[in-house]
Design a protein that fits this description.
By secondary structure, the protein is mainly alpha-helical. It is 64% helix and 0% strand. It is elongated.
Length: 179
Amino acid sequence: MWAEQRHPGLMAERQNIENFQNAKVWDKVLAPLMAVSLVFPMVIVAGLDHRYNWSPEFPLWLIVIGFTLIALGYAFAAWALAENRFFFSVVCIRTDRGHVVCDSGPYRFVRHPGYAGNIFPLFGIVLALGSVWALIPAALATIITVIRTALEDQILQEELPGYRDYARRVRYRLIPGIY
C-alpha cells in the first residue's frame, strides 16, 4: 500500500505483460523459480521435520530472533519497493518510460535491497519454524537470489544509464561490507 501510495500504478506496472515480454531470457526462468523457492519448500520441509521429529526443539529466544529477522527483512524489502518506482517483477530496462537509477532510501546502502530484504527472512523462517532441515531450501533460495542479483547487476551496468556510476558509489550488492 505504501509503494502504491508513493508511486500510483506501480503494482499494475509490476504485473504488466509488456514487462514480462521484455524480460531477459534467463529471468523468465529465475524470477518464477525465485518466487516459488522463497517460502513453499521451506514450509514443506519444516512440516515434514516436525512430523518426523528430525530437528531438536529450538529455544524460544531463537524463535524470537527468527521472527525479528523476518520482520526486519521484509520491512527492508518493502522500503525498497516503496522507494523505487521501477521495482519490477522481472529484469527489464524501461528507458521508454523514464527508467532511471534509484539511489535513495535503502539503495544508499546496497544496490539490490529488495533481494537483500528477502534473504534475511529465509533464515528467520528457519529459526521461527524450528527446523534445521529448512536450512537446505533456505540455502537454495539464497543461491538463486545471489545468481539473479549478479545477472541483474550486470544487465543494469550494461543497459541503464548512470548505473555504473551508482555501482562505484554503492559498492555492495546485498550485504554492506560483504557482497
